[in-house]
Structure formats: structure tokens, C-alpha cells
């Protein structure tokens, strides 16, 4: 029997990391049960992990707002300073295909800013413990040395044309990958240097990854250089740049040049 965790007593960063890790384990159990067809697995995993996260957050932080991809939106969150923003399965296709590039996002926005975040990569076990990998805002690791040739992570199914054009301008290698969280964490882990996305996203796709990336010293912004603001009435947040800080201005300049040429 597992020990009881007093969630209300946990610091926000510990709570985010614990919830992301447990949700990841739940998702692995759902997948390994063998009860679901490939078509049904994504929905089953999404809904199961979502119920855990929603109930746990309402128990642990009853006064905070909550926004989840899998929950009906609520106007109550707009009047809250503290709002948890979660994505139970980021990269549903990759989850169903038993790939490693999917994630669980648990983040806390405070006054619209990405303050606390945890991104679990249950399929990527860097520690060898079988518990997957969780990157978080309060446990920062040094960025690996930059390689000679730049690498840019892009969608493995529909790379954004702006990202492809910027990669050509930088002579960067394209690295196809699944979920937004996996792409963002790839920059922290040294698997890539730039993540540029312009194909449409929502707040839950980027909030926790941005919080973690910023804590690790990465540049995070919209692709026009403006800040990323969360807990908005319209949760559509279509574009994103996460990169090593030394590449930010060059990437933003290339994007501006593309806009001017359009």
C-alpha cells in the first residue's frame, strides 16, 4: 500500500512534478492493459489521466483556477490569479504508437505568466529507474554544450513552413518529433537547439513546457518576439519559439524577413 501524500502541504513545484509523474504512470498502465484498440487508446488515456489530474488539483488547490484540454472551459478561471493549466496527454498519436515523444504537462500560471511547470516524458527513462523522466522548474540542469551544426525540432507529421524556411536560413538540421512538450524538452536535453512552431496551438500545449524552459535559461516567446501570456479568454496561442538564447535574435530576424516577403 502506497504512503499517503499530503498534497495540500506540497510546494507548487513538487505538486506539479508529482502529478505529472503519476499521470504518466497511469497512462502507461492504461496502454499496457491491452484492453483498447489503437483508435480507442488515445481517448481512454486522455480521459483517465485527465480525471486524475483534475480531481487531484481540486483536492490540493481548491482555491486556484483550472484549465485542461480535456475539460469544458470555465469562466471562473479568468478571475483567478493562480491557474493550473494541464495537458493530460500531449502527443496522443505518439502515445498510441508507443513512441517516446509524448508528454504530460502540469503548469501553474500566476497573473498570466508561466510560473511553475513540470513536463513528464514517461516513455523516456533517462535515469534507468523505469519511472520515465520529469523536467521541472525547480531542478535546473546545465544546458549541454552547443553542437557545431544547429538542430531544429519540427512536427514529424506536418512541419510548419516557417520553421522549415528558418531552418534553411540557418542551415539547421531538421529533427522530426511528436508532442510540443517533447520538442521543448529536447532543447533542454541537448537533442535540439531550436523549437519554432507556427501551425497552431493552445495554452495547454505550451504553458508547462515554457515554464520549464524559461527556468533552464532558454528564450521563450511568440514568433514575433512578444511574450507568451496565459489564462486568456481565448486559449488559442498559435505560435511559439523556444531556443538557446544565443540563437533567438537570428531566428526572430529570419521570421520577420519571411513576414515582410509574404
UniProtKB/TrEMBL annotation:
GO terms for biological process: 3'-phosphoadenosine 5'-phosphosulfate metabolic process; sulfate assimilation. PANTHER family: 3'(2'),5'-BISPHOSPHATE NUCLEOTIDASE 1 (PTHR43028:SF5). Keywords: Magnesium, Metal-binding. InterPro entries: CysQ/Inositol_MonoPase, Inositol_monophosphatase-like. It comes from Sphingobium quisquiliarum P25. One of its GO terms (molecular function) is 3'(2'),5'-bisphosphate nucleotidase activity. Mg(2+) 1 binds at residues 69, 87, 205. This is MFS transporter.
Amino acid at each position: 500500500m502506497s504512503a499517503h501524500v499530503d498534497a495540500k502541504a506540497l510546494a507548487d513545484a513538487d505538486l506539479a512534478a508529482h502529478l505529472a509523474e503519476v499521470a504518466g504512470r497511469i497512462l502507461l498502465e492504461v496502454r499496457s492493459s491491452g484492453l483498447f484498440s489503437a483508435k480507442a487508446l488515445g481517448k481512454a488515456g486522455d480521459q483517465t489521466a485527465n480525471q486524475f489530474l483534475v480531481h487531484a488539483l481540486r483536492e490540493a488547490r481548491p482555491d486556484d483556477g483550472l484549465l485542461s484540454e480535456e475539460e469544458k472551459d470555465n469562466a471562473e478561471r479568468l478571475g483567478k490569479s493562480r491557474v493550473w493549466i494541464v495537458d493530460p496527454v500531449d502527443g496522443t498519436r505518439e502515445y498510441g504508437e508507443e513512441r517516446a515523444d509524448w508528454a504530460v504537462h502540469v503548469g501553474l500560471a500566476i497573473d498570466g505568466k508561466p510560473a511553475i511547470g513540470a513536463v513528464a516524458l514517461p516513455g523516456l527513462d533517462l535515469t534507468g529507474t523505469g519511472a520515465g523522466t520529469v523536467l521541472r522548474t525547480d531542478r535546473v540542469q546545465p544546458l549541454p554544450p552547443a553542437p557545431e551544426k544547429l538542430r531544429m525540432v519540427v512536427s514529424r507529421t506536418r512541419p510548419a513552413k516557417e520553421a522549415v524556411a528558418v531552418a534553411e536560413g540557418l542551415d539547421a538540421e531538421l529533427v522530426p518529433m511528436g508532442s510540443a512538450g517533447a520538442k521543448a524538452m529536447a532543447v533542454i536535453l541537448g537533442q535540439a537547439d531550436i523549437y519554432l512552431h507556427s501551425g497552431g496551438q493552445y495554452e495547454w500545449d505550451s504553458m508547462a513546457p515554457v515554464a520549464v524552459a524559461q527556468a533552464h535559461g532558454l528564450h521563450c516567446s511568440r514568433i514575433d518576439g512578444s511574450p507568451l501570456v496565459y489564462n486568456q479568454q481565448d486559449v488559442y496561442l498559435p505560435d511559439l519559439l523556444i531556443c538557446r538564447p544565443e540563437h533567438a535574435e537570428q531566428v526572430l530576424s529570419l521570421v520577420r524577413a519571411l513576414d515582410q516577403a509574404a
